[in-house]
Amino acid sequence: MYFGLSEEQNQFQDYVKKFLSDNVSVDEIRKIANGDDQKLHEDIKSGLMNLGLSSLLIPENYGGLGGDLLSAVSIAQGLGTGVGPISFAGSYVMAPIALSLGGNDDQKDKYLPKIASNEIKFGVGLSEYVAAREDSGIELNKGKASGKALFVIDGDDADFFILSDKGGTMFIVDKNEKGLEIIQLTTVDKTRLYLELNLKNVKAEVLQETENNPFVIQKVIDAGRIILSADSIGASETMIEKAVSYAKERKQFNRVIGSFQAVKHMCAEMAADLEPCYAMLWQAAHSFDHDPDEARLQACQAKSHISEVAKMVSKKATEVHGGMGFTDLLGLHYWFKRIGLNRQILGGPELVREEAAELQGFNQ
Amino acid sequence: MNLEYGPEYEDFRAEVIDFCMEYEGISFENTSSKNISRSEWQKILIEKGFIARAIPKEYGGFGGETDIIKSRIIATELSKAKIPGGMGGQGIDMLVPTLLEWGTEEQKQHYIQPTLHGEMIWCQGYSEPNAGSDLASLQTKGELKDGNWVINGQKIWTSTAQYSQMMFCLVRTEPQAPKHSGISFILIPMDTPGIEIRPLVDMTLNAGFNEVFFTDVTVPEGNIVGKRGDGWSVANSVLGHERGSLADPNATMNRLNTLINMMKEETIDGRRLIDIPSYRDRLMQVQGKVMANQAHSLRLLSSKINPGQNVKLGGMIQKLVGTELRHEMEALAIDVLGEIGTLYEETPRLKENGSFQFHYMYFLGLIIGGGTNQIQKNIISERGLGMPKEPKVQEAS
Ligand SMILES: Cc1cc2nc3c(=O)[nH]c(=O)nc-3n(C[C@H](O)[C@H](O)[C@H](O)COP(=O)(O)OP(=O)(O)OC[C@H]3O[C@@H](n4cnc5c(N)ncnc54)[C@H](O)[C@@H]3O)c2cc1C
What residue spans define the domains of chain B? Predict the structure, then answer.
């Protein structure tokens, strides 16, 4: 029995962490967030992609590494530690899973190898299936899609989008297709881009296995929720590290502030609440890979619980830094905002808890 | 990640499940047809090797190898089948491991077997009125006179002292030595003349703990465990056992199921409590924490059998997180029951025997006892996160 990330997974995660800490300091993050340096952003993206992120979840017979979700989780944790300013959950986790489970043989042949080799990129928009806000929602009619998709994940530079109708039938649209309008949304976290898509009778290529079969979209959402949770855990880990090391340096009243109990206890509370989240996250990913009966409940609960803990960490770690924590200069807010964004995407805590209750037959 | 224990362990699990079926429904209540005494049950469990596994046969144990996976399987299956586990208490959980590590051969022979069999009950005499969190400042005095320890002073918060045959006690025997190195660990029979026990009623209205007064209490020199002045180290070597056991994840899981069932049965205006969204949301939050806690205990188990897997911080948080979680869970049960949730002791309309109120208070006691949760946060921040210690205040002269 071994409960935890494997040596290989830990190593992979360390590569990602190291790449980010060597190449992406707060200054770089700021430039990227402000859109000031396209070239820098491209360099960072390609540096990370060179680690093999795009092929991780693509099956081996389609030119990928055939990794499981736990491996993807180990990477997402790493990305979260440095607010990795690249696509991951949508393009390289949800899209490959959607295509592998939902596509027919032709579709798999056509798309999977090219994702692995990083020739094409997918954005994924399933928010309307989880909970349709405002005027969003898409209808499919004889191979044509109309409506609006909000908060499409990893839509920047995407060549294709995977979307769904209210019934969970998933389909692909090409970014160049007639009738498709792409609108950029700006969230608090400018290190990742989210889109709104406006569709008017756009040609849609239905993923065959998803027709009248919500199983696939559920799996894709579970995976997305788990990966977003991993990202938030990584971000929380860094925030605690920063708070602890700041507290050991900063002096007031002739003492380092880390010797004040109010400060120590905030740090201890953050650590104590975050620590069990690792195990919860890995268990959820493991169930996704090996124990389908448990997987959905665990994905919902991980998303909810980890979002709550991460929110607490993002608040307390900022407080430990005093006024400095509140500044743009320090840049702690990038982690704060990443946590805030992940919390809402694919369902906020209240919504996923309601789903968890439903799964167990608790609300009749 | 590999959650399989392997075929050998699955065979063992099957054996445990068979055992559980054989004893299904056994109870310590006289009224039950499957009545059995606690000490008889204890012996059966030892004979099977389900408890006292690694304790040598000559001391009344099973005489096997430590196997924490088997221990976990046993605990999990007994808990699932609602079969009572072995006895606990400070004798079995703390004194026995202490003696195994520090005791003389004679002490082991004399004390371990009756303790394991539940025939010798122990209490822990550490805290004093002026030595709580700052335990090392304890003042109960022990002087060696004519081959005997003569003890004078007072202990407080001593759980189960009124039912105990024996106390393991921290006593200051070297008044000249620095605070931590002047303490000895001494075993005291509770029927020794000069001991007075005054039960203290706690907020649950049970007399859970006591004051114990010593006036010229005389015990043989050989009742010391370890050397003179070693008491602090002797006591600390097993404190970890106590902290880990204060909020057992299996018990927490069972308790969550009790809460869920209650929320399905009880109603407001004919509507099940679980169908009320705000209550349900709080239930789901607690369930999330319980699940994280369960997974975390697997990670800790894994770190014990896979050398190199470092979960140091993970071990330190258990008492804090586990006791707070139980307290929160019982509080939720009370809130969803509303006015009914305030009922306690003997009264019409009582739910679950009043156990929600009882545990709500009991776990507040555990948040304070066994090293308060504020002290736990000191430990986590100082030893886990490497933050500085409090500056020492000069003693007032
Ligand atoms: C249910 C229960 C059972 C018990 N059973 C036993 C037993 O069998 N045997 C035994 O010997 N003892 C027992 N105790 C005693 C227990 O160990 C002490 O109550 C505990 O260590 C706290 O000591 P105190 O009560 O003197 O509180 P104090 O130490 O006076 O603490 C008061 C408050 O100050 C805080 N505080 C103190 N020092 C610090 C610090 N350095 N940093 C931050 N906060 C601090 C505490 O957290 C607490 O909030 C039991 C207690 C309880 C509640």
Answer: 7-87, 95-108+120-232, 246-384
- Output the six-digit token pair for A357: 């209750």
> Would you state the structure tokens that stand for residue A100, as one six-digit string?
């592998």
- Chain A interface, best mutation among B257, B274, B284, by max A CB count within 10 A: B284
Q: Which residue of A has its CA nearest to B388?
A: A259
Q: What is the pLDDT of residue B245?
A: 66
CB A180, CB A137: distance < 8 Å: no
Q: What does the alpha-carbon distance between residue A135 and residue A146 come to, in Å, rounded to a whole number?
A: 12
What letter does residue B61 receive in the DSSP assignment? S
Architecture of domain B95-108+120-232: Beta Barrel (2.40)
User: What b/e string do you get for B345-354 counting C-beta neighbours within 10 Å, with b at 16 or more?
Assistant: eeeeeebeeb
Contact B209/B202 with Cβ under 8 angstroms? yes
Distance, CA of B139 to CA of B148 (rounded, Å): 19
Between CA A65 and CA B324 the distance in angstroms is 43
Q: What is the arithmetic mean of pLDDT over A138-164?
A: 96
Q: What is the pLDDT of residues B101-118, one digit of tens each?
A: 999 999 999 999 999 999
Query: What SS3 state is found at B328?
Result: helix
* Residue-wise pLDDT tens digits, B353-374: 999 999 999 999 999 898 889 9
Q: Span B246-384: which CATH code? A: 1.20.140.10
Residues B44-86: pLDDT tens digits?
Answer: 999 999 999 999 999 999 999 989 899 999 999 998 898 999 9
Quote the Cα angle for A360-A280-B88, to 5°.
Answer: 90
Residue A22 pLDDT more than 90?
yes
Answer whether residue B247 shows pLDDT above 90.
Answer: no
Q: How many CB atoms lie within 10 A of CB A148?
A: 19
Backbone angles phi, psi at A222, to 5 degrees: -55, -50
- The nearest CA of chain B is from the CA of A43 a distance in Å of 33
| Protein residues with CB under 6 Å of any ligand 1 atom | A 261; B 123-127, 132-133, 157-159, 208-209, 365, 368-369, 371-372, 374-375, 378
Name the pTM for this structure.
0.89
Query: Does the pLDDT value for residue B242 go beyond 80?
Result: no
The dihedral through the CA atoms of B137, B138, B143, B147 has a sign that is negative
d(CA A335, CA A82): 8
Whether residue B204 contacts residue B364, with contact meaning beta carbons closer than 8 Å, is answered with no
ipTM for the complex shown: 0.83
Which domains does chain A carry? Answer: 7-116 (1.10.540.10), 122-210 (2.40.110.10), 214-359 (1.20.140.10)
> Catalytic: B174?
no
The DSSP symbol for A157 reads: T
Predicted pLDDT of residue B382: 96
Q: Kindly report, residue by residue over B131-158, the tens digit of the pLDDT.
A: 998 999 999 999 999 999 999 999 999 9
Q: What is the DSSP annotation of A216-255?
A: HHHHHHHHHHHHHHHHHHHHHHHHHHHHHHHHHH-EETTE
Q: How far is the CA of B197 from the centre of ligand 1 (A)?
A: 20
**CA dist., res. A251 & res. A256, Å (int):** 4
pLDDT at B397: 52
Report which DSSP code applies to A142. Answer: T
The nearest alpha carbon in chain B to A362 belongs to B274
Taking Cα atoms as reference points, which of A308, A315, A345 lies closest to residue A332?
A315
Q: Are A184 and A192 in contact (CB under 8 A)?
A: no
| Rounded Cα–Cα distance for residues B152 and B149 (Å) | 10
CA distance A124 to A161: 6
Q: How far is CA A301 from the centre of its chain?
A: 16
CA B91 to chain centre: 10
AA identity, residue A118: N
